[in-house]
Each structure stands twice: as structure tokens, then as C-alpha cells.
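Q: Please design a sequence for this.
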């Protein structure tokens, strides 16, 4: 796990024009940003969306005050970039599945198992997928995920719990259909 205080310090220094701090900030956050975006959209789009995330962040970096961790701030920007991308691409079908990071794929389970897990997570309702990926794949706290998603911590807890229930239901029934529910508090 990266040191959020150090990453935040690099972001603040980068906002003041320190090129070395800017490079350190990008190195420290690029994997999390890419993984987050790949889970929300697709691996094929993650590179471009990560670049867009950093472009937006760079424009705002001079005004970043460090009231939250830089990682949380940056992933909030990444979420908005992903939402904007989905809105723009609403008319074209999504054809590429999410790619799990290598450290989460069981090499003994093989390629088929990795694809199955990717499809299960990709089939989650978007708000549940964001909460699940942020907390379970990226290791963010529920508080950080709530800040990234712009909702209460209780909503994140609910979304993660419902995502787990959805995954368990699909695994138990062998069905790939999405679970129908009453929805989440706050979306």
C-alpha cells in the first residue's frame, strides 16, 4: 500500500511546479488509476482514460489543497472521466471485458477462471461495481471510496455488500444474469 501522506505531499509540491514531485506523484498513482478505470470501463479504454484523468488533474493541481488524500482526489477525477466516457459512448455497445491485474489472477486457475471473474465483476450494476472495485480490488477504505463516489460511507458499505450478494447469487445459481433489487441508497 502506498503512503498517502507522501503521495499528497508530492501532489502539493507538483502543484507548485516541482517536476520531480510531479513524476513521483504519477509513478505512485498510475497503477491504481489504471486499474480503477479498467474496472469501470474496459482495459482497452483505460490507457486513454488514465491520460485524460491526469490531464484534468494537472489543470486542477495548483488549487489542490490536500483536504483529502491526493489518491482519493485523483480517483474522484478518474471516476468522473469514466462517467463522461460512458455517457459519450452510450450509443455503442461495450465489447471488451474488464482486465484483472496479474496479482489477482490465480495462474493455476488459468485463463478461463480469470475471464469468468472479470465477467462477473463487469456484470455488477455500475454503482456497485465502482464501490466493489475501489474497496476490494484497489484496497481503498470505505471512507476513501465514499469520497471518490461522492456518497455516504453507509452507501458504499451497502453497495459492496450487495455486490458480494450478487456475486454469490450468480456463483450459486450458475447464472450470469444481473440481480434485480430495489436499488441503493443514494444511487
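A: Design:
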Amino acid at each position: 500500500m502506498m503512503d498517502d501522506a507522501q503521495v499528497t505531499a508530492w501532489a502539493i509540491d507538483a502543484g507548485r511546479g516541482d517536476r520531480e514531485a510531479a513524476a513521483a506523484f504519477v509513478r505512485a498513482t498510475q497503477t491504481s488509476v489504471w486499474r480503477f478505470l479498467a474496472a469501470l470501463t474496459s482495459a482497452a479504454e483505460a490507457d486513454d482514460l488514465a491520460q485524460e484523468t491526469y490531464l484534468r488533474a494537472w489543470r486542477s493541481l495548483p488549487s489542490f489543497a490536500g483536504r483529502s488524500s491526493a489518491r482519493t482526489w485523483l480517483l474522484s477525477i478518474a471516476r468522473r472521466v469514466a462517467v463522461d466516457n460512458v455517457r459519450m459512448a452510450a450509443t455503442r455497445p461495450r465489447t471488451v471485458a474488464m482486465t484483472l491485474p496479474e496479482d489477482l489472477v490465480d495462474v493455476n486457475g488459468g485463463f478461463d477462471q480469470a475471464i469468468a471473474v472479470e465477467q462477473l465483476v463487469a456484470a455488477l450494476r455500475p454503482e456497485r461495481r465502482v464501490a466493489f472495485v475501489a474497496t476490494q480490488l484497489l484496497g481503498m477504505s470505505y471512507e476513501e471510496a465514499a469520497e471518490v463516489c461522492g456518497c455516504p460511507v453507509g452507501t458504499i458499505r451497502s453497495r459492496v455488500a450487495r455486490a458480494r450478494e450478487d456475486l454469490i447469487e450468480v456463483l450459486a445459481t450458475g447464472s450470469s444474469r444481473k440481480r434485480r433489487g430495489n436499488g441503493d441508497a443514494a444511487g
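Q: Thanks. Anything notable?
A: The mean pLDDT is 81. The CA atoms of residues 155 and 178 lie 20 Å apart.
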